[in-house]
Amino acid sequence: MSDTIKKLTIEGFKSIRELKDFELRSLNVLIGANGAGKSNFVGFFRLLRQLVDQRLQIAVGKEGGAGRCLYLGPKMTKQLVAKLYLGSNGYEFVLIPTANDRLIFEGASAHADSARETIEGASRAALLRALIAAGILAALVGGAVGIARLRRRRAFG
Ligand SMILES: Nc1ncnc2c1ncn2[C@@H]1O[C@H](COP(=O)(O)OP(=O)(O)OP(=O)(O)O)[C@@H](O)[C@H]1O
Ligand SMILES: [Mg+2]
Predict the structure, then answer these.
(1) How confident is the model at residue 32 (pLDDT cuts 50, 70, 90)?
(2) Ligand 1 centroid – CA 16 distance (Å)
(3) Is 37 in the pocket of ligand 1 (CB under 6 A)?
(4) pLDDT tens digits for 106-122?
(5) Measured between alpha carbons, how far is 154 from 70 in angstroms, rounded to an integer?
(6) Closest CA to 93 of 133, 62, 36
(7) Cβ 42 under 6 angstroms from ligand 1
(8) Which pTM was predicted?
(9) Which of 61, 102, 149, 156 could join 112 via S-S bond, C-beta 3.0 to 4.6 A?
């Protein structure tokens, strides 16, 4: 199970102001009161899935715009930060809102073992390069039990 997300940090997504170094196991059960944020947490993995499928803008549009994706909106939250740890591999990205209520990449970086590639810029190609560099071209499974899984398709080489 070395290809699963072991730990993650989410900052600024919906009701998640900051979830730092949150550890995931092979099975994760979310329990909480109505409105506690269970669906938002699962929604983060849905966003990741869409992001990998190059459907970020469609996903953001369906959510009702970038403002709705950011914790308490864009006036309060200037960026959405995600850090994924998969064993010795990791992937980080920062999304920022645009004037027309989209989310774009402010930056992304990936690291695999001792190698590290940092990618600046906002392009989709940069994201894909980063994902490939970390061996994370991914298939994600999200659901009511909040299982997050990344399936490695390309080894870092
Ligand atoms: N952009 C946002 N910023 C801050 N809070 C938000 C944002 N978007 C949604 N929320 C809050 O998230 C909460 C809903 O969270 P969510 O739907 O994940 O709860 P839940 O645990 O799945 O609840 P239920 O058990 O009813 O399904 C609401 O209180 C809503 O105000
Ligand atoms: Mg829910």
Answers:
(1) very high
(2) 9
(3) yes
(4) 888 877 654 555 544 44
(5) 31
(6) 133
(7) no
(8) 0.80
(9) 156
Nearest to 26 by CA among 146, 157, 121: 146
Rounded to whole angstroms, the Cα distance separating 113 from 130 reads 14
**Which tens digits make up the pLDDT trace of 58-91?**
999 999 999 999 999 999 999 999 998 877 777 8
Assign domain 7-133 one CATH number from 3.90.320, 3.30.1050, 3.30.160, 3.40.50: 3.40.50
Q: Is 76 in the pocket of ligand 1 (CB under 6 A)?
A: no
Show me where the domains of the chain are located.
Answer: 7-133
Per-residue pLDDT tens for 126-156? 555 555 555 444 433 333 223 333 333 333 3
- Please name which ligand lies nearest the alpha carbon of 65: 1
- Residue nearest atom 13 of ligand 1, based on CA coordinates: 35
Mean of pLDDT over the chain? 77
Angle, helices 38-52 vs 56-63, to 10°: value is: 150
* Ligand 1 contacts CB of residue 64 (under 6 A): no
Is the CB–ligand 1 distance for residue 32 below 6 Å? yes
Kindly calculate the radius of gyration of the chain based on its CA atoms and give it in whole angstroms: 15
What does the alpha-carbon distance between residue 98 and residue 108 come to, in Å, rounded to a whole number? 17
